[in-house]
Amino acid sequence: MISPSLQHLAEWYAGLDLEPAVREALFVGAILVTLTIRSFVRRTRIGTRLDSALTLLVFGLAAGAIAALDPNGHVSGPFLYVYAFFVAAIAIGSARALLVLFVDFHLRERRGAAVSRIFRDVGSVLIYFLIILAVLRFTLDLNLTSLIATSAVLTAIIGLALQDVLSSVVSGIVIEVEDPFGPGDWVRIGSYEGKVIETGWRTTRIRTRVAEVVTLPNTYLAREPVVNYSRPDPRFGETLRLEAAYEAPPDLVRQTILEVLDAEAAVLKTPVPEVRTEQFNASGIQYVLRFWIDNFDDRERIHSRVMASTWYAFRRAGVRIPFPARDVFVYSEAPAAGMESGNVRAAVARISLCAALGDENLDKLAARATRKLFGDGESIVREGESGESFFILEQGKAAVILGADRGERTPMIVAELEPGDYFGEMSLLAGEPRSATVTARGAVAVLEIGHEVFHEMVSADPKILEPISRVAAARLAQQHQVRETTALGVAPQEVDASGVLRRIRDWFGV
Ligand code: CMP
Questions:
Q1: Whose CA is closest to atom 16 on ligand 1?
Q2: Distance CA 264, CA 494 (A)
Q3: 0.85 cut: is pTM over it?
Q4: Would you say the CB of residue 75 lies under 6 angstroms from ligand 1?
Q5: CA 508/CA 49 separation, integer angstroms
């Protein structure tokens, strides 16, 4: 059933006292006229916008031609739907064409009015929606308004699905109302700086200095601070910092820079440029320049020109641009206080073992001995390790321990070493692994003497082998005794005390 108000139109339409053939001819004529208009305006800029409206009108007219074919003489049955489409298409197509002509062509192009894209789009969608509701209501007698208003579930589903989009759209509308910027403005939004290309429903697009097009969701814009460099005042206060040498008088520097700023055409005369002496830095005096420009597009180029001209002006005025300056103190490494002090030669000479070596050999030995420091509890040599060096305890005390590194439950301390004592001779002399662990007691300094140096000592004075090997043999004997009387197992390296000297001579070939 058609409702009464449109009934007249439908009746008028169906009852038009025209021959069906004439009616069809009129429709075809209208379609041809529309198509012709479409092909003409298509080439113009506004025509591309009219294109969709005209296409819709053509389809609408085609639907009208079909509806008019109803053999009953009035629209009914399936023809009713075709008729509904005809009415909707003609209404929407006409509304769209009017919107394009009035808003885009008349207001925007002729009058130059800034009509918000969002409002235009929201407005047109609303108009189309109302047309569709009206057509459904009055031609097909379908009342969708109550259905839409009462469908809470539908509303919730749409609301959830479009949450982000909707919040962006709402933000877009808020931004449109607040109008913090418009197309062509230079802005900084959050961490993005660029020129606004387009403000849209859901997003705003800006072009950066390096031609990146950044599409920012309107929700981001609503959240972040927006700096507009172009509005309301197109002037922008540029700030530059630079240094001049300490010997250049600040007044001269200031004057030189002001002349540069005065000569630069892009720098505005008002507000007056300023040069301030800001602070004394490590390498020079820092000055801050504040000048105003009204062409933000050229900001970096102006910056560059000012800096370059300043360089030349400084050269002419004899103002030096400083490099970072440093006072460098060159010193040869002095021995640290405490453990490292003292002279190796004197330490070596104090040891009874070396007493007979003579000055020349002592010098050689001292030159090649290395001093090493150990903290309390550190192992200087470990039982079982291979070792080819010999140590003289220079400062501090050390404990000789059996079983410390073999996981024994009760390691045995077999001796305490004092300054002037030596150790490590057994591995060195007999070529065996270390027979015990020697651990620092408190801070310890030792002189380490390598195999070759020791060999030279022996060659220089073979007699020193005798006391060393005697000591070694006694130490070994003591070790054996300890091992036998305690729970400690026999050392892996079983050295025969009586054979030590012989093995030493073999080892050293003396
Ligand atoms: P070496 O076996 O090379 O490494 C461990 C060192 O501990 C060993 O040489 C000796 O110099 C020393 N040493 C071993 N047993 C004793 C001991 N009973 N008394 C003193 N020093 C020892």
A1: 475
A2: 93
A3: no
A4: no
A5: 106
Ligand 1 centroid to residue 412 C-alpha, Å: 13
CA 470 – ligand 1 centroid, Å:
12
**362 Cα to the center of ligand 1, angstroms:** 24
- Closest C-alpha to 507, from 450, 426, 407, 449: 426
The per-residue pLDDT for range 317-360, each reduced to its tens digit, is: 999 999 876 667 776 655 444 444 457 888 778 777 777 777 88
The tokens describing 490, both together, are 């026999």
Q: Which of 133-137, 145-149, 196-200, 452-456 has the lowest mean pLDDT?
A: 145-149
In single-letter form, the type of residue at position 128 comes to Y
Separation between Cα atoms, residue 460 and residue 463, nearest integer Å: 9
SS3 of the chain: helix, strand, coil, percent, to 5? 50, 20, 30
Read off the amino acid at residue 291.
F
CA dihedral of residues 475, 479, 482, 486 (deg, nearest 10): 160
Which ligand 1 atom lies nearest to the CA of residue 435? 2
DSSP characters over 321-352: PPPP-------PPPPPSGGG-S-HHHHHHHSG
Is the Cβ atom of 437 under 6 angstroms away from ligand 1? no
Candidate from 438, 439, 451, 482 with most ligand 1 atoms within 8 A of CB, to mutate: 438
Within a 10 A sphere around the Cβ of 421, how many other Cβ atoms? 18
CA distance 357 to 345: 12
Identity at 464, one-letter amino acid code: I
For residue 478, give the ligand 1 atom closest to its CA: 18
Tokens matching residue 284:
């020079």
With a 6 Å cutoff on the Cβ, whether 139 touches ligand 1 is no
Distance 245 CA to ligand 1 centre (A): 67
Please state, in angstroms and rounded to a whole number, the distance separating the CA atoms of residues 9 and 386: 114
145: its two tokens: 């308004």
